[in-house]
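Fold sample X.
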Amino acid sequence: MGRGFAVVDLETTGLFPQKHDRIVEVAIVHVSPTGVVEGVWETLVNPMRDMGAQRIHGISAAAAARAPEFGALAPSIASLLRGRVPVAHNASFDARFLAHSMEQAGLACPDFAYWMCTMQLAGTFLPGNRSLADCSAAIGYAMENAHRASADALAAAALLRAYIGAGQDPAWWDGWLATPGEWPDEPFDTAAWLARTDSDTAPRSVLERLHVDVATDAAVDDGSLNLDYLALLDRVLLDRYMSATETDDLIRFAAELNLSSTAVRRIHRAYFDGLVSAAWADDQLTADEWADIQKIGTLLEIDAETIAGAASKPDAAVPTLSTGFRLSPGDTVVITGETRRDRAAWFDILTERGLIPKDSMVKKAKVLVAADPDSMSGKARQARAWGIPIVTEEGLERLLGLGAGE
């Protein structure tokens, strides 16, 4: 069991764990009694709800969905903190949040009195500074990637090192180190931890994940266009965005239908050709139509030469492979997560168009609008179970014919 400090930083969905806010990232930095960094551990956490203030922490629901839930991490967090003084910048927040999360996992944290706060200590060592950024600047530490848990924890560790080296009576520090508080004695295991950078390595591409031997693939392909796969593809592309969840759905459905990668590639090309043909139906291509063609072509992994060729009118018209999904007066639209546009403003816009906006999920909803379409909120999980499309806020603007600034 190490003797020293454990600097903690948490990224969360919000400020109030008692009101269902949850941890989405944890970082722990071990620091020796003399202020030397001895180890860094970090992981995303699956909050099993919407991601909250993503504009602050910058974590996508797709990344968090691949991470373990807090309950699976709690024993290793306790092991990393056991025997060390817990430290945080604004420790009252991290201590309160961690204690609540540990309690939910069936474990206990030491009382807040055992925590050291680098923000409070700034009043002694760095008069006039309080924020982590200001304190870091005051000691000449260059912060990077603010609001990434590991970056903030390392910045707080640098502050701690500066405080230790500032000439405070060694007995004062020894007093802290002598009473680190009692943490649960659980097995030390961080094998399940998933750092933010590691979460981005999983392939998102449908065709990349369907890749098989080309000769074998072509041999089993019958040349048809599967209409069921086409219908799902069309629904996925309603908002001109393919979320990680939707990519997984397409992969799973292609496997259920026993579609080869060659067959899927042909369906994607047929969908793209139909879109191009529809755009050229009036013998002109607007800037918006061209942008839409390029976006869809990229999402469907159409080769660059074919996309570029769509700037010219095709020789022959081909069918548009679309379900013609539309929002009509009387349709119910549900919204979840922290949208860019104020929720009340969205309700006004939807009501003006004869639509029925709701905060709660209902089975008759035509569409769910999510700040992050990979959201793990209860509403998003229910929408998926009921087969209700989930679209981005920009997708809703497109369905309503709104510009982003309207």
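Fold sample Y, listed below.
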Amino acid sequence: MSLTDFFSPINPDSFTPKQGFFTSQLGLKTQIYTESFPDFEEHTYDLAIFGVLDGRGAVNNEGSALAPDYFREKFYKLNEGAFNSRIVDLGNIKHGATIADTYIAIKMVVSELIKKDIIPIIIGGGQDLTYGQYLGYEDLEQKVDLVIIDNQFDIGDDDNEGIATRSDCYLNKIFLHQPNYLFNFSNVGYQTYFVNQESLSVMDKLYFDVHRLGEFAQDITLTEPIIRNANMISFDMGAIRSADAAANANTTPNGFDGEEACRIARYAGMNDKLTSIGFYEFNPAYDNNGQTAFLLAQMVWYFVDGYYARKKDFPLTPKSQFMIYRTSLKDGSGEMMFVKSKKSDRWWMQVPYPSGQSKNERYHLVPCRYDDYQTAVNGEMPDLWWRTYQKLN
């Protein structure tokens, strides 16, 4: 089955200004499916945008199905940055006969794009579409590190049969999916009054990494190592405060501000591991002045900018590009090793695989902060090291 079977073209009138585009704007820099489907044999692309016109699983936010074209209207007016972009817009996936059909379409598109070494940028739709995004990794024979930017954990009671789900409980489907290829889950920006203590206990027992919004109140750069650990990211626009992103029926007064959301998106683009990202729950019905559409367009712009600023310094490249640091624990139980990139000053810690767990590698590399190294220098074991080691067993 060809990719073209999944997509409907975009009406150029929906995103083209009356005066047309300037030569520097993304509307002329992007190959957009308006008549002929893009030819992957003739052209090389790095990033593929596509919309999903399905909001059936979006709890109290169904108008999100209309999001993709409202996003395009703002995005293609933005100027290209200091990079030569190779972006393709594949158009929209129409909602299937059932929501399960939509998930399968997303799965097949995501899987095919990743195999072509093209990063999908998904514009939803409800955040339950994250499940379809996740399914795209099923046939790739790799473990997945999933990062969700959200103000709560979407693990409510799911009464749907099969693979159908809702935006408030789709994580259940991911956690329980068989075969299980989820290695780690991280939540960035949850707000405690939206999360019950039982859910927090579940996350702790599974050694998942969850981070309160308040952790980043003074320093948004603390999100970078968490984001850098992701293979796939799902961004709920409801994680942004209502003053900056009102176009969501479930928006709340607190959350990340617009600038912080853009910085998170740029960190995502710079992540050498990342192979897909989805932006969900933007609802144009609540966007009276178009500001949320503009913010989403700028977030995707920053993601693209981050992608073209990738350092390609994951510690598998020549050792001359890295500094190795060794520390000893106070109790004498052993030493810890850290790796620092000379190109970006970013840090990783080495967590050893248990004996026999990996035939090809001795260590699992985890993105970390300088503070984790300082903790080890003081003879203490960083919590991130211990949680990762537990998951490797």
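Sample Y note: The first strand starts at residue 7 and ends at 8.
Also: The chain has a mean pLDDT of 94.
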